[in-house]
Amino acid sequence: MRGWPTWAPSGRPSTPSWPAGRTARSRTTRRPTGRCAARRFGYEAEAKAIQDAYLDDRKAEAEALVPTELVERTSLIGPESYVRERLAAYREAGVTTLNVTPLAPTHEARVRLIERVRAMAD
Question: Model-level pTM greater than 0.70?
């Protein structure tokens, strides 16, 4: 599975957690960027607008430009029941590995979120 699945108990990721905006326009690399992931999901124009706004230091605008559907397709954000449902769907689809980046203010809180996700996935 490609993308950046992330879990936060509620809300949506802030611009710094969304890789589509952070890559320099001229960057060339073999590693996929957030913009590449957005393009694979059919959001090329949106990814370019996000990147342009972010790199022009219009971060609030960049954050607002991230389509809700894209966030939902690439992230685990919401109540625990929703996260459990999405994890079950990933399992049914054959996904065996998720890259989880918990959004929490402290290291300890991030560790607790990882432990909760792991328990839900088992």
Answer: no
